[in-house]
Design goal:
Elements (H helix, E strand, L loop, with lengths): L1 H27 L3 H28 L6 H23 L2 H18 L6 H37 L1
Helix pairs in contact: 2-3
């Protein structure tokens, strides 16, 4: 009898451990069908912006003024932005947004060097590159003379 109670208690602990993880994922992800709808919508919007721009510039014979060109470019940019926004509503897009938020949080934790440290490090790297390049130049000259000695 004691063994059964212990097994039930262990099963309850396992179930409670899974619930928060499922709740966190439920907030992040949507159903696969709705995600597919957003992908299709995104592809349709981007394709219509590209095809519409191509058709308008090649087959519509209108003297395009600066305002007309600006309007066309603004519509294409708006179409691309709407397509990107629709793609960000998918499961992959939400995962990308979550990743970018986490990356930004980690980036804020970075301790950046001061201006003086950056200048000093740059100077050290510059000097090291000059020394190594001179060393390689002298090695090249010496090996060239050795090859000339044996070949001529």
């Amino acid at each position: 009898m004691a063994d059964n109670k212990g097994k039930v208690a262990t099963a309850d602990k396992k179930n409670t451990a899974k619930k928060p993880a499922q709740g966190a994922n439920a907030d992040l992800f949507i159903s696969p069908a709705l995600s597919a709808v957003f992908w299709i919508l995104s592809v349709v919007i981007v394709a219509s912006a590209i095809i519409g721009n191509y058709y308008y510039t090649n087959f519509v014979v209108v003297d395009e003024t600066t305002l007309g060109r600006l309007t066309r470019v603004a519509i294409v940019i708006l179409g691309l932005a709407l397509g990107l926004g629709s793609a960000l509503l998918t499961n992959k897009g939400r995962a990308l947004l979550s990743f970018s938020r986490q990356a930004y949080a980690e980036l804020r934790k970075v301790v950046w060097p001061t201006r003086q440290e950056a200048v000093q490090t740059t100077f050290i790297v510059f000097v090291a590159v000059c020394v190594v390049s001179l060393f390689l130049y002298f090695c090249d000259v010496i090996f060239l003379q050795i090859v000339r000695l044996f070949t001529l």
